[in-house]
Automatic annotation (TrEMBL):
Keywords: Magnesium, Transferase. This is NTP transferase domain-containing protein. It comes from the Bacteria. Gene3D superfamilies: Spore Coat Polysaccharide Biosynthesis Protein SpsA, Chain A. Transmembrane segments: none annotated. Residues 7-134 form the MobA-like NTP transferase domain. GO terms for molecular function: transferase activity. InterPro entries: MobA-like_NTP_Trfase (IPR025877), Nucleotide-diphossugar_trans (IPR029044). Signal peptide: none annotated. The lineage of its organism: Bacteria, Pseudomonadati, Pseudomonadota, Alphaproteobacteria, Sphingomonadales.
């Protein structure tokens, strides 16, 4: 597997006022300051510290694109949604491509390196997910959306690895899932009647579900389990921002003692 993929940071707006940006008193969520850096700068820094030199930032805000450029990333125009933006970035940046989001405020370089090295050489696409018990241990009080499988309840970590050009084939499926990201039932319904029944009976493992969805798109897809439940924390609502700020304050206090 190539050791130097490119990276895409999705930092576009869904339109209208962002409640988290409004709560923080800034124009764009990615520009919220945490400690001494904006959220976007923190994500760019984590990606670069993971050894990835070429970084694109997809955004429809001139201020966010300027922040991306200030930190040495390539500013890319956002399309109509994350999946469409990723499709455009695939053409510009190629594969392998790590994909994450501009609101992944706690992202760490070691999580990225660990994720990439664990992607099988045969995989076209990989997704990082975290089990509920890992999230609750690392981020007590953080509210996540879960999918329930035979091997536990899982939540996404906003980290994807598009390993080969065939990964472009998952974009259409991603667009469907994107529309239903807050309605887990509609996502699992795409498994088909046989696997759906196993899911309802609590007998379907996550890995099998991801592999099946990949086959539907004509690719080999794998799920990688996050070692740290904090990887599932993004800043999707004001309560998430409060949690991240508290966590960072506690981490800074711990380093001073």
């Amino acid at each position: 597997m190539p050791s130097q993929p490119a990276a895409l940071i999705l930092a576009g707006s869904r339109g209208g006022d962002d409640p988290v940006a409004t709560y923080a008193g800034v124009s764009d969520k990615a520009l919220i300051v945490l400690g001494d850096a904006t959220m976007l700068a923190r994500v760019i820094g984590a990606v670069r510290d993971a050894g990835i030199a070429r970084i694109g930032v997809s955004a429809n805000s001139a201020a966010v694109r300027a922040e991306a450029t200030r930190f040495g990333a390539e500013a890319l125009a956002a399309e109509a949604g994350p999946s469409a933006s990723t499709a455009a970035a695939l053409e510009a940046l190629g594969t392998p491509l790590l994909v994450t989001t501009g609101d992944h405020a706690l992202l760490r370089a070691d999580w990225i390196r660990d994720f990439i090295v664990r992607v099988p050489a045969t995989a076209d696409v990989a997704v990082l997910l975290a089990r509920r018990d890992a999230i609750e241990a690392a981020a007590p009080g953080s509210k996540r959306t879960y999918l329930r499988f035979a091997d536990g309840d899982w939540s996404g970590c906003n980290l994807f690895y598009l390993a080969t050009p065939r990964a472009a084939q998952v974009i259409a499926l991603w667009q469907e899932v994107e529309r239903d990201r807050k309605r887990p039932w509609r996502i699992v319904r795409r498994l088909g009647p046989g696997l759906l029944l196993r899911y309802l009976l609590g007998r379907l493992p996550l890995s099998e579900a991801i592999a099946h969805l990949g086959r539907r798109a004509g690719v080999e897809a794998v799920a990688i389990a996050a070692r740290n439940g904090l990887a599932a924390v993004d800043v999707d609502k004001p309560a998430d921002l409060d949690f991240v700020r508290l966590h960072l304050d506690q981490a800074r206090a711990a380093t001073r003692t």
